[in-house]
């Protein structure tokens, strides 16, 4: 029996409903009555600026116009609203210009230029329509709340109509079918070692989904940190419900009509990733654990000897002294600063793990400081929250306390002085051996608002990594930190990247990796990745290579494995696989400028980095069930190979013209193609009209000072824009507009092809030349015109009719023609 079933109640009569408050017998606890209250007929309303308050005499609903496309709803059962505070939405991004209010005989209407929020008078149902009055999202029944007999609190409920074929996407990292219709989920951050397909909940809680009704998309962000539930037509095909075990029924309706609009607008509420340091986009090698020092030095040397690019090496818990955070095991690492420098000298960044559990040890300064300052979480009876994790008996900082966050941020000073470049935040669900997590009664500061663990549990990890990120940012001065976290809540992207936790070395987990990353990307967390190869279990060479291939196209690319597994480096499976792994890691490095530009578009505009096919063509019904094609950024489409022995794949391409990345064969979109993909290949297609920047293969970011940059221009008969972003790569100068964004516009016909360049920004790269390769020209050019003047430019042709020219980086227009 799951949580919802436990409290399912006998049918309520209309008379009871009209009475407002019902007292019905609870079948579980015998005689104790459960109080359950639905909103009743609206009695009055009032407007305060862009807030409208509707009351049924006892409960009040607030309708807040946030922007033309975002409306926030919240319900106060007894008309007293809770403090308007959110960890997910630090500041409501008000932008609504004009809105109006109308009352008709049957309803009230709050209308912006694009959305109508309709509040029916009699049933108090809330619906959203577009400006053509097409209904997009409607309450099935009035919002309600009911006593929670298990916890002594209450549930808040919202039930929407679900239309036949309405599809649902989002909710973070659920390891399940991409379209969530027919499923029920809960959000409660949970340490799920070796999780299985369909297991729920996992490590993160992102209570945001995108609905796709016919061809119109909308979003619902239920900003509630308690344990929340979502039922997408599981209990009843015609209903979608979401509810929480406490807190407020507060949700944002986010208008589309495109999925991309919804995701972008969700980012305006919850924020985007700051620009990561460029090196963080390289390949990372991790294991539980690389120690002692000689081992990690040898690892670094092997990468360089074998010329397999790598930017970061990780130290798991064994680098610490008895798993005490912020200490070093001096037996294994006698001189960490020297070692970190040695690694840095050969181009490796060192990233170390930190857990929230602080060992109870009077001789350990972190414990002493935390204890003296009362920074650790306490139970309701005032005793400390204690639990066993890696170091044994531990206490846990209350990261929902701003003072504790400040303290925690400062604790990284030593690691930063040692030269550590990134912090991996683990076990922050929070995980506790045995009991799983904290008991519900643990108290939290909750930024001064106070609350039990029921309220703070899902944000604990996010607040830990927030403390880490903010602390590192101060300590690194103007350098960008890398943070990684396992747990998180909506908005965690403002502080960290995310990896999906303890997965398994299996082909099914490779498929889950794809699902989890595309889903996370739609849910605001684009900087995500999985443990390449699978954390537990043993991949064979083929699985590892296919995972590396997918890894090239996950924003965070790190191989990681559990301590009881065999060695798991790119060369661990023999020479054949080593060569293949190297080839694909090199591909990642070639594409780094493209990848970095996709990060910029995420940071600046809230475009997700990974975009599943349904997002590219949402009105094609079949796309709601296609799970394997996605684009990285907006130009490169990937459909990774996910089965053993598979050497070709049917790939669907959205309308338009595409090119096979490897063969340059032209492929028409709007249909399926069979693409060959032996183990040394994978289906990658590039959209016609794209300008893809490429760097030469480097062993680590910035190994080489570039004196020119390559662009691959894919011929198109329709006009296509591409954006290319560059900046210092590791500072925050981009916040002061020190960056350059270039727009390329490509268009061609039967006898010419032109590329125009528009450049904006204050950053000046050092290179002077572009090395441009035209792909797919339908003619062999004989002339080149640069900025209106015919130039004698050397053209190189190869067997694939690619035409290569060099040009000064400041050109405005290049034309190649017959
Ligand atoms: C957890 C992490 C894993 C890490 C291990 C030891 O299981 O998810 O990545 O290696 O702890 O720190």
TrEMBL record:
DUF5110 domain sequence ranges: 709-776
Pfam families: DUF5110, Gal_mutarotas_2, Glyco_hydro_31_2nd, Glyco_hydro_31_3rd
Family the entry assigns: Belongs to the glycosyl hydrolase 31 family.
Top-rank taxon: Bacteria
Gene3D superfamilies: Glycosidases, glycosyl hydrolase (family 31), Golgi alpha-mannosidase II
Protein name: Alpha-glucosidase
Keywords: Glycosidase, Hydrolase
Glycosyl hydrolase family 31 C-terminal domain span: 606-692
Organism: Arcticibacter svalbardensis MN12-7
GO molecular function: carbohydrate binding; hydrolase activity, hydrolyzing O-glycosyl compounds
InterPro entries: DUF5110, Gal_mutarotase_sf_dom, GH, Glyco_hydro_31_AS, Glyco_hydro_31_C, Glyco_hydro_31_N_dom, Glyco_hydro_31_TIM, Glyco_hydro_b
BP GO terms, sorted: carbohydrate metabolic process
Residue intervals of the Glycoside hydrolase family 31 N-terminal domain: 60-231
PROSITE patterns: GLYCOSYL_HYDROL_F31_1
Positions of the Glycoside hydrolase family 31 TIM barrel domain: 274-598
């Amino acid at each position: 029996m799951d949580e919802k079933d436990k409290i399912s109640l006998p049918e309520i009569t209309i008379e009871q409903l009209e009475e407002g408050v019902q007292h019905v017998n609870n079948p579980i606890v015998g005689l104790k009555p459960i109080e359950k209250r639905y909103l009743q007929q609206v009695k009055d309303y009032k407007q305060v600026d862009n807030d409208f308050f509707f009351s049924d005499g006892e409960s009040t609903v607030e309708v807040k116009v946030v922007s033309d496309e975002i409306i926030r709803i919240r319900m106060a059962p007894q008309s007293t609203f809770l403090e308007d505070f959110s960890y997910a939405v630090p500041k409501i991004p008000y932008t609504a210009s004009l809105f109006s209010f109308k009352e008709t005989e049957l309803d009230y209407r709050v209308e912006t230029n694009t959305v109508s929020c309709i509040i029916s008078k009699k049933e108090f149902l809330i619906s959203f329509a577009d400006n053509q009055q097409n209904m997009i999202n409607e309450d099935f029944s009035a919002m309600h709340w009911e006593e929670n007999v298990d916890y002594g609190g209450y549930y808040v409920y919202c039930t929407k109509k679900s239309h036949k074929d309405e599809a649902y996407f989002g909710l973070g990292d659920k390891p399940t079918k991409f379209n969530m219709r027919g499923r029920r989920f809960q959000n409660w951050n949970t340490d799920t070692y070796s999780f299985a397909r369909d297991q729920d909940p996992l490590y993160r809680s992102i209570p945001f989904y995108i609905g796709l009704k016919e061809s119109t998309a909308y979003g619902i962000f239920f900003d509630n940190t308690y344990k929340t539930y979502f039922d997408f037509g599981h209990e009843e095909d015609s209903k979608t419900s979401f509810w929480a075990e406490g807190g407020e029924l507060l949700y944002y309706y986010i208008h589309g009509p495109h999925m991309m609009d919804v995701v972008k607008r969700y980012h305006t509420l919850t924020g985007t990733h700051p620009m990561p340091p460029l090196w963080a986009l390289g390949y990372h090698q991790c294991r539980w654990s690389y120690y002692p020092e000689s081992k990690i030095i040898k690892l670094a040397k092997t990468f360089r000897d074998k010329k397999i690019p790598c930017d970061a090496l990780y130290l798991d818990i064994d680098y610490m002294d008895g798993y005490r955070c912020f200490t070093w095991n001096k037996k294994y690492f006698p001189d960490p600063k020297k070692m970190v420098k040695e690694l840095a000298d050969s181009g490796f960044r060192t990233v170390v793990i930190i857990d929230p559990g602080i060992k109870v040890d009077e001789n350990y300064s972190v414990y002493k400081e935390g204890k003296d300052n009362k920074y650790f979480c306490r139970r309701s009876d005032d005793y400390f929250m204690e639990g066993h994790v890696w170091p044994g008996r531990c206490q846990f900082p209350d990261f929902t306390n701003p003072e504790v966050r400040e303290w925690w941020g400062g604790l990284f000073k030593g690691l930063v002085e040692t030269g550590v470049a990134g912090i991996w935040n683990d076990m922050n669900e929070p995980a506790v051996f045995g009991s799983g997590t904290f008991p519900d009664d643990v108290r939290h500061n909750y930024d001064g608002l106070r609350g039990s663990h029921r309220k703070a549990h899902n944000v604990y990890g996010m607040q830990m990594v927030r403390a880490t990120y903010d602390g590192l940012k101060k300590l690194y001065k103007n350098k960008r930190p890398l943070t990684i976290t396992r747990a998180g809540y909506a908005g965690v992207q403002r502080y960290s990247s995310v990896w999906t936790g303890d997965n398994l070395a299996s082909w099914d987990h490779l498929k889950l990796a794809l699902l989890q990353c595309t889903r996370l990307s739609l849910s605001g967390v684009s900087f995500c990745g999985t443990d390449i190869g699978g954390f537990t279990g043993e991949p064979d060479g083929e699985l590892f290579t296919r995972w590396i291939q997918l890894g090239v196209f996950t924003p965070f690319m790190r191989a990681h494995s559990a301590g009881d597994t065999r060695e798991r480096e790119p060369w661990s499976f023999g020479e054949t696989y080593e060569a293949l792994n190297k080839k694909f890691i090199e591909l990642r490095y070639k594409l780094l400028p493209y990848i970095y530009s996709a990060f910029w578009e995420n940071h600046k505009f809230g475009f997700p980095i990974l975009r599943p096919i349904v997002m590219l063509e949402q009105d094609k019904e079949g796309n709601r069930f296609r799970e394997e094609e996605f684009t990285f950024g907006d130009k490169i489409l990937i459909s990774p190979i996910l089965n053993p022995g598979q050497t070709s794949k049917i790939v669907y391409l959205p309308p338009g013209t595409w090119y096979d990345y490897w063969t340059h064969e032209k492929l028409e979109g709007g249909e399926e193609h069979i693409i060959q993909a032996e183990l040394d290949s994978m289906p990658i297609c590039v959209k016609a009209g794209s300008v893809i920047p490429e760097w030469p293969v480097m062993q680590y970011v910035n190994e080489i000072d570039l004196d020119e940059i390559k662009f691959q221009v894919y011929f198109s008969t329709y006009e296509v824009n591409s954006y290319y972003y560059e900046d210092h790569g590791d500072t925050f100068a981009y916040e002061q507009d020190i960056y350059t964004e270039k727009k390329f516009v490509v268009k061609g016909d039967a006898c010419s092809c032109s590329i125009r360049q528009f450049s904006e920004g204050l950053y000046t790269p050092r290179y002077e030349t572009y090395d441009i390769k035209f792909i797919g020209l339908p003619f062999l050019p004989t002339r080149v015109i640069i900025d209106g003047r015919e130039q004698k430019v050397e053209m190189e042709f190869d067997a694939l009719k690619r035409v290569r020219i060099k040009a000064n980086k400041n050109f405005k227009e290049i034309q190649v023609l017959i």
